[in-house]
Design goal:
The protein has 304 residues and is of the alpha+beta class. The protein is built from nine helices and twelve strands. It is flat.
């Protein structure tokens, strides 16, 4: 049962990754897709309607045992990752329940864990709670990256916030990130992804796990910049048109792409950029569609 759930979650995580950082060649504007029952305006989406395949029955059991599941999650992340978390959402999945959490404290990230559910016996197996080790580790490393390079990320955040303030583009809501995000360090406009080959942050992670109260200065000093390779650290920017009737604008896409290429004070790494129309699929929390305009693999924006 657990194996099936792990495979499903890996597929979900992979689809999120692919939507943000691969297969992104420039495409031209096309007609916006017609609205259907699964699409909702990104400004209105808080995570409601998110669903896994074959999760209807387990979702009912998860909701019924939500307090028990929350307690298990709090204990799991504290004991295994030295991190206190908020539990924002529990969603039934194949043979289990997925628990979306957000870290407390100075290292910020979103991630998830899974509690197996025995449907026949109608039991929630909280003693068997698990998480994909690298997925959580990756989430923490992303949070550490953001913390030790705070000034560089402030400049990127300021730039993207200034774009949104002009009223033509927007990002996901904070509630959507909390309730169905689960993908490491995330803002309404981007998320971070590290490959398994990213070694520069490993000493920082090891120091944090050994002492979660370690100072930001000492964590920054543990970073081994000699091991950094841009291709192993991805910053995946995803924007949406603010107007419900608007197609992804090629003019805006080209402007943002050009400005990202010219900026020299933002974090080093590999950037992808996707501009979507206004709608998001409420079942998958994905905004990428056929009419999205994308820049990424194999033509990433590289900052070194």
């Amino acid at each position: 049962m657990v194996k099936n759930t792990k495979i499903l979650l890996c597929s979900i995580g992979l689809s999120i990754m692919l939507g943000g950082c691969s297969g992104m060649n420039n495409t031209k504007e096309t007609q916006a897709e017609p609205f259907n029952d699964s699409l909702v305006s990104v400004q209105d989406y808080m995570g409601e309607g998110y669903a896994f395949s074959y999760g209807k029955d387990t979702d009912k059991l998860a909701k019924k045992n939500k307090n028990q599941i929350e307690e298990a999650a709090l204990k799991f992340f504290k004991e295994n990752y030295k991190t206190d978390v908020y539990v924002h959402n529990v969603v039934g999945s194949s043979d289990g329940a997925t628990i979306f959490v957000e870290s407390k404290g100075k290292v910020h990230f979103y991630t998830y864990a899974v509690v197996p559910i025995d449907e026949q016996g109608k039991q929630v197996l909280t003693d068997k709670i698990w998480a994909e080790e690298y997925q959580v580790e990756n989430a923490i490393k992303g949070g550490l990256y953001h913390m030790i390079f705070n000034e560089e990320f402030k400049k990127l955040d300021s730039y993207l916030e200034s774009l949104a303030a002009k009223g033509q583009v927007t990002g996901k809501t904070k509630e959507a990130l909390q309730n169905v995000g689960g993908h490491g360090y995330m803002t309404p406009y981007y998320f971070l992804a590290l490959t398994s080959k990213e070694e520069a942050i490993k000493p920082v992670y090891d120091l944090f796990i050994s002492n979660p109260d370690e100072s930001a200065e000492n964590l920054r000093n543990a970073y081994d910049e000699n091991l950094f390779k841009a291709e192993n650290f991805k910053i995946n920017i995803q924007l949406f048109m603010a107007d419900k009737q608007a197609k992804p604008s090629e003019e805006i896409f080209n402007q943002v792409t050009k400005e990202l290429e010219e900026m020299d004070s933002i974090p080093t790494g590999t950037y992808s950029f996707s501009l979507n129309d206004n709608f998001i699929d409420k079942q998958s929390a994905e905004g990428a569609k056929e009419n999205s305009i994308k820049r990424g693999f194999p033509d990433y924006i590289i900052k070194e």
